Every structure is written in C-alpha cells, then in structure tokens.
Amino acid sequence: MWPYYPELLTGNVPRYTSYPTAVEFHEGVGGPELLKALDAIGLDEPISLYVHIPYCQQICWYCGCNTGAASKTQRLTSYLEALEAEIALIAGKLGGRGKVRNIAFGGGSPNAIAPVEFVRLVDRIFTTFSCDRPNISVELDPRIFNPEWAPTLAHCGVSRVSLGVQSFSEDIQRAIGRIQPLEMIKDCMKQLRDVGIDSVNFDLMYGLPGQSIDDLSETLDTAIALQPSRIALFGYAHMPQLFPRQRRIDDTNLPGSSDRFAMAELGYRQLTWAGYKAIGFDHFALPKDSLSRAAAQGSLHRNFQGYTDDDCPTMIGLGASAISNFPAAIIQNEKNPGRYRMLALAAQPTASRGLSRTADDQQRAHFIEKLLCTGNTGPISAPIFKTARTALQIFIDRGLARVESGAIIVENNGLAYSRMIASVLDKYRQLDSKKFSNAV
Ligand code: SF4
Questions:
Q1: Predicted pLDDT of residue 70
Q2: 145-168 pLDDT, tens per residue?
Q3: Which atom of ligand 1 is closest in space to residue 56's alpha carbon?
Q4: Region for residue 179 given its phi and psi (left: phi exceeds 0; alpha: psi -120 to 50; beta: otherwise)
Q5: pLDDT (tens digit per residue) in 332-349
Q6: What residue owns the CA closest to ligand 1's atom 7?
Q7: What is the whole-number distance in angstroms between the Cα of residue 61 and the centre of ligand 1?
C-alpha cells in the first residue's frame, strides 16, 4: 500500500513538463529571442518539431487543451495556410541547419484536418527542413478516425500514435461529454495494426465524475486486453476557472482526494501486475516499448508531451500556442489563431511570450527532470541544495525521500509524491496556485 498523507497532497503542483513552467512566461520574451535561439542551432544538431493543430470536431467537457471547434472547413484551411507560412519562415531561418529527428503532431486533434492535408503538411516539413529519418508521432481522436487515416499515417511514415480513450465506462463517457464505444477503439487499433503501426498509446484518466475504483479497474482490464504499447494514466484536473468548458462537469460528483489517491495506486498495481513497466509517476509501457528501454538505460526525458525517449535538446513548436524549448529559452507562439495567422502570413515570427533560462534555471530543470524520470536527482550543487533542504524534510520524516551523497532520492513508496518532492527544487513554486492541478 502506498502511504497516504493528505497534508502533503493539498497544494496544487506543476506537472513539470518544463522548468520553469509556463506560469512564468512573460511578454518580454518573444520573436527576437526565438530568432536568436534558431541562429544558435548547429549544422548537424539534432532537433525535434512539435506541430500543433488546435481544433477538434467535438469538444470534450473535461478538456484543458488549447483547442477550438473545427466546425467550419474554412477555419481549418486558413489555419493550415498560416501553419505552412510559419514552417517556411522557420525552415528558411535555419537554412538547412539542424537535423529533424522527431516530429510530433498534437492538439487538439491532428486528425480533425483531412488526411490529404496531413500528407501535404508532412511533405512541407520534409521539403523545407533538413530531416534525418525522423520518428513521427500523432495524437488521434478515435471518434473521427475514418478508414482513410491508417493508410495515410503509414504512407507518411508515422510510427507511433496516441489515442484519447479516458474511460471505457459508458456512464462516465456521458458525464465527460465524450462518447466512444469500445468497438470504436478496437476497430481503430485493428486498422492501425493492419498497416504496421504497433506503437499505440492510450490516454486514460482517473478522478472523473462518478468514477469508482471498480469503474477504473474495469477500464484498466479492458485496456490491458487490447495491449497498447503505452498507457498514460492522468488524474483529471478540474479547473473551471481556467477552462470554462469544464463547467459542464458535475463537480458534486468528483472523487475526493483519498479516492483519487487510491485510484492512482490501483492503476500502478494493476498495470505493473499485467506486465507494464512504470515510467515515472503516470506512464506505463510494455517492456519492448522504446519508453521502457529508455527508462532502463537512464535516458528517459520529460517534455511538453510528458515522458519521452526524445533526447533532442531543442524542440521547435509550430502552430498557434505551440511551445519551443531551447537550452536557454522557452518560447510560446501566439495562442489566438487569428493573431497567429496575421503574424505568420506577414512572415513575422509568431512567438509572443516565454522566458530566458538562467544558468540556475537550467540546473534546477536538470535535477527536476532526473528526479521525475529516475527518482534520483544525482548530486545537487550546494547553493541549490541549500534552498531545497528545509522543504524536503517533511518528505524525509515520512520515509518518502532521502538524501544520499548530495542527491535527493525518491523512496519506492514515495512515487505518488514525486511532483511534490520535485517542487522543493522549484524556486518559483507557489503551492496554493490555482494554475496547477492536484498533486495526485
Ligand atoms: S479530443 Fe482531445 S483535445 Fe479535443 S476536446 Fe477532446 S480532449 Fe480536448
């Protein structure tokens, strides 16, 4: 049993998919800093691209993503025109420098666009950037996965996809505004496997309205029977103050803190018992999956998509609200699709805010990433350790963490507290911030 200490889980805490987190972004960093960071990319430096499609055919009530309804074809066409202009601008600035090793399409729902538009987009990237046989991954909405998609993805060389599943319970699907029968997911998996795409992730959720431990357990059993190579099990973050669409969720029916904790533990036990390897605190992967291999080799990383085996130090975000990550800066594109389009079509950088990372930020980012990926920060420099030591004590007192040879180590039974333990290294942390989700 994981020990339950509610007093340690009351604050809201970042997911630390970056450090510093997006809450620290400001408008003093934007286009000029992006151009400077692009200038610093070396000829053969490996880079990753993230391409954001901020549209979905149907908006789910629980969604916290930057996405809007793809209700009009013209809206998507205009967006893709702007995206192509941004691709041309960024690739032109690089002038062949940087070798693209990974391309991730996320959203929103990349399959909200037509398959032929997806092919065109991939083609634009391949013909403008210098690509080095990149791994291509795509997030998919199973509800709009028509028979054209699997052959299209295979044709484009996509090797990994992620399906938004959340729960197989029909009652819960109704309560979160996302109806997708089991047969739909099975059919999606079959079509993908038939074209050779075996690396499939399921996004699942606990803490959903009306969800019981038994509901979650049944969903996990169903997922395990389908054998996706990866499962991400996230706690639902109810933040209607930030995401007004969540007001449709009945918050009188949300599981409380102790139930959420029990669900996170159940997920861990059920999935690891079924042969999945725990990857950090919320991902699970079959032993043959590249994420499991990266975890075993100590080369696991964290980026804006969560745990990853992508080890490129630079990720360039393309599309409205997409975030670029450079060693010394994090820069986000304009979120508003209209303003994004105006800038892109005027051949202007679309970056609108971000931050420069100081040497101290970069060190803390490294320790936080190591802690969340391996449970061990490695030796921490003395000035940073000094700032973390007092806040760490509460976790040491409860046997959830220890200090050894100058490193912070998460004990086996401290996994659920990883984000809280990581936050002791965060010099910007505000545990009462309403901008972050529950720790579990
Ligand atoms: S499909 Fe995904 S991105 Fe789109 S609204 Fe639903 S949860 Fe959000």
A1: 83
A2: 999 999 999 999 999 999 999 999
A3: 4
A4: beta
A5: 999 999 999 999 999 999
A6: 63
A7: 9
- Give the architecture-level CATH label for domain 359-434: Orthogonal Bundle (1.10)
The secondary structure of 213-265 as a DSSP string is HHHHHHHHHHHHHH--SEEEEEEP---TTT-GGGGGS-GGGS--HHHHHHHHH
Q: How far is the centre of ligand 1, averaged over its atoms, from the C-alpha of 281 (Å)? A: 23
* 100, 129 Cβ separation under 8 angstroms: yes
Report CA(293)–ligand 1 centroid distance (Å): 29
């009945």: which residue's tokens?
250
Distance 107 CA to ligand 1 centre (A): 8
Answer yes or no: is the C-beta of 110 below 6 A from any ligand 1 atom.
no
- Closest residue to atom 3 of ligand 1, CA basis: 108
Mean pLDDT of 52-68: 92
Examine the pLDDT at 16 and tell me if it is beyond 80.
Answer: yes
CB of 195 closer than 8 Å to CB of 151: yes
Q: Are 175 and 250 in contact (CB under 8 A)?
A: yes
Give the list of residues 6+ apart from residue 399 with CB closer than 8 angstroms, or none: 3, 411, 413, 414
111 Cβ closer than 6 Å to some ligand 1 atom? no
Residue minimizing CA distance to atom 8 of ligand 1: 63
- The domain 6-356 is placed in CATH, from the list 3.90.550.10, 3.80.30.20, 3.90.1150.10, 3.40.50.720, at 3.80.30.20
